[in-house]
Amino acid sequence: MAAYKPVVVQACPKLGERITQDTLYWRGYKTPVQIKEFGAVNKIDFSPVPPYNYAVTASSRIHIYGRYSQEPIKTFSRFRDAAYCATYRDDGRLLVAGSEDGGIRLFDISGKAPLRQFEGHAKPVHVVGFLSDKYRVFSGGDDYSSNLWDIPSATEIISYSEHTDYVRCGCASKVNADVFITGSYDHTVKLFDARTKSSVMTIEHGHPVESVLLFPSGGLLVSAGGRYVKVWDVLKGGQLLVSLKNHHKTVTCLCLNSSGQRLLSGSLDRHVKIYSTTSYKVVHSFNYATSILSLALSPEDETIVVGMTNGVLNVKHRKPEEKNEKSQKKRQPAYRTYVKGRTYMPKQEDFCVSKPVKRVLRKYDKLLRSFQSSKALDAVLEPPIMLHTPEVTVAVMQELHRRGTLRSALAGRDEKQVNLLLTFVARRVIEPRFTPVLVTVADMITDIYQPVVGQSAIVDKQFLKLQEAIGKEIDYQEELLEVLGMMDTLFATFTKKRDTCLEENKSNGLTEIIETNRNY
């Protein structure tokens, strides 16, 4: 009796993901830690000084977390309503935040009660921050105004009312202590100089502006609003350098890494995109569970923190670099011990004994070997095999069809099993690699279970899905044939024109030769 040959599963080439240095780097973060906040996280800000704690603004509280802590190490809760945009000063000793009631509060990190309170906005203040001189605070509110405040005297220095809609984002220049920028829902980004009474530059973004970011050099400005992230050259009067449209929904937050070579953007489409600041192409992407409202990267790029609309804080820490210390292992035999005799060539009088290789058969192969066709088909209709390796299921169906036992294996099934079969066929019949086999399977199933159509609503629904899938595929094929016919016509026209041009060139060349001979 001949030995059983296992089922040959057709292998299809897979398109592998392109692995780059950025892919390896950004994959080097650990499994995220999930922290639940009291409300949507509208701002995350890292302290610029070690140990790089970070402030999380959510609901009516500001929580201070340590780098590796999962519980807040400090809480500021002196807000009657929602708090917004808690931001550290450059020395990490003070924290400023806006609020729903229009007030601005300044906190000392080592205390609890506000050091200063700035009153002047008539509506909620969504954006606050320190100027680089550390003694002034800028703010923007829903009353369309952008204000500048003096910390020692707790008084308003100047108020700008140039925006015509809510002011929801802003940043300060690290190079010039008098310059700060605000973005508004009126689609504009305005650059203010504290020494002047009006804005010195206005940039039209084209969509409600959700976030702005100034490069450390102060020469480039990034604005985010709608699905667009735009980069502007401030030194050239606000010239647009590049417009990026890689998100599917509104972009809500921006962030730079410590070197300024990578730009991160978060969006309501649940993705964080990472761009190279030299080519402005996406080099990596993170996927999250829900829409993203805020994003921050620690000063040493060791931690990525993302705040989401459902109040969940997602924290990823970078894996520590492995030390190249040689562990004391038990000494293994030398390499020559393993390869001894490998190169020996048998002589003519030697008798060679071959060691049989034991084959491990899979479950469906064992069942096929014992001619249990129905059970073999059941074995490959299990959800893990159907979902992840459908080529195995199709290969067994093809083998049963070759043996002539496919019809008997498909027959005699109950409602649940028929539903499973039809689900698989309807989903995979449109794939070109499976179509020849699954069309035959679908034909047999229709012939076998046609008498029971109308007795089960579940089976009838699956038959309708199969009919719809095949109908759509036929329509696609007809459209493709029409396009192919159009292309053939175009190519034929181009070929005729080319042949005509060649004939004209040849006749012109021949006429020129005759005229030249006559002249001679």
TrEMBL record:
GO cellular component term of the entry, any: nucleolus
Nucleus recorded as keyword: yes
Domain U3 small nucleolar RNA-associated protein 15 C-terminal: 344-490
Coiled-coil ranges per UniProt: none
GO biological process terms on file: positive regulation of transcription by RNA polymerase I; rRNA processing
Keywords linked to the UniProt accession: Nucleus, Repeat, rRNA processing, WD repeat
Intervals holding WD repeats: 118-159, 244-285
Protein name: U3 small nucleolar RNA-associated protein 15 homolog
Native species: Falcunculus frontatus
Gene symbol of the encoding locus: Utp15
